[in-house]
Model the fold of this input.
Amino acid sequence: MGSRLISDTSPPPEKGNQHMATDRQRDILRIALQEHVLQFETFDKNSAWALGERLKITCEKAAVATAIEIRLARETVFFYAMPGTAASNADWARRKRNVVEMMGKSSYGVGLSCEEEGQPLEALMGLPSRHYACHGGSFPIQVKGCGCVGVVTVSGLPQRDDHI
Done:
């Protein structure tokens, strides 16, 4: 887990840039790059199951307890709550997933952008925080040439780690 994916897709540093970007601004750029690069040729229920199993195994190896949800066309096709999670993890997954389904962007990226604007999502779009949480952990599943076809969500870790 950790910050490997964010680091692996970091844009190269700009030469001669007089202004230092904040960590938040760098993460916003990295997430935008991830959303652009991380696309599948195809993605179906079998792909969702394979991704869910891979996430479960990765979390088990890291000894972290997470709830994992994968949805295609707004239908839940994979859900697993690991031992050590609580019902609140499933609710957090639902709220983060709602952000991605509404906006087609990573819940963490949306949250960082809202912080950058200085306004919560509720104020910017009128979306109630009871149903929408722009915290790390939910990411659009994109198919090349089709766009966003689903959402993968992890809940149970600090938000930056949930994003990874």
Observations:
- DSSP finds seven helices and five strands in the chain.
- The first strand starts at residue 39 and ends at 40.
- Helices lie at 4-8, 23-37, 45-61, 87-103, 107-117, 121-125, 159-163.
